Amino acid sequence: MKAPEDGVLLRIFIGENHRDPADHRPLYESLVRHAHEQQLAGATVMRGQIGFGRHSRVHSAKFLELSTGLPIVVEIIDTEARVQAFLPVVEQLVTEGLVTLETVQLTRYP
């Protein structure tokens, strides 16, 4: 088995209706595009079925015709140094949401 290395998992909790302030594309798309441009190890976007944020308004996929802004989680992973270098992009783009950093063990496979 390959030897694991220390890494950081960056999680960004936003809503699907959040936009990039510069070009108005979905924020999750911009975050992944920037992570790819900086050649980070990986990024994944997941849409939640139900959730709420700081405004305590529940958004649910059960009521698609009534609900906007379903929860989105963007996960980006790499070494601590590379994730730290990416944080200014997050600061610039994310105007509302929640960001977490978690220490993880990475095992890279070809």
Summarize the structure.
The protein is of the alpha+beta class.
Explain this structure.
This protein has helices spanning 27-37, 80-93, and strands at residues 5-15, 42-47, 50-51, 59-60, 71-78, 98-106. It is of the alpha+beta class and 110 residues long. The protein has one domain: 2-Layer Sandwich (Alpha-Beta Plaits), CATH 3.30.70. The chain is globular and about 45 Å long.
Please render the helix and strand layout as text.
Elements: E1 5-15, H1 27-37, E2 42-47, E3 50-51, E4 59-60, E5 71-78, H2 80-93, E6 98-106
Helix pairs in contact: 1-2
**Class by helix and strand content?**
alpha+beta
Portion in helices = 10-25%
Give the CATH architecture: 2-Layer Sandwich
Could you name the ranges where pLDDT drops below 50 across 5 or more consecutive residues?
Answer: none
By DSSP, the count of extended strands is 6
**Radius of gyration over alpha carbons?**
15 Å
Could you give a short account of the major beta sheet?
4 strands, antiparallel
What is the top-level CATH class? Alpha Beta
The figure for the number of domains is 1
Report the principal-axis shape: globular
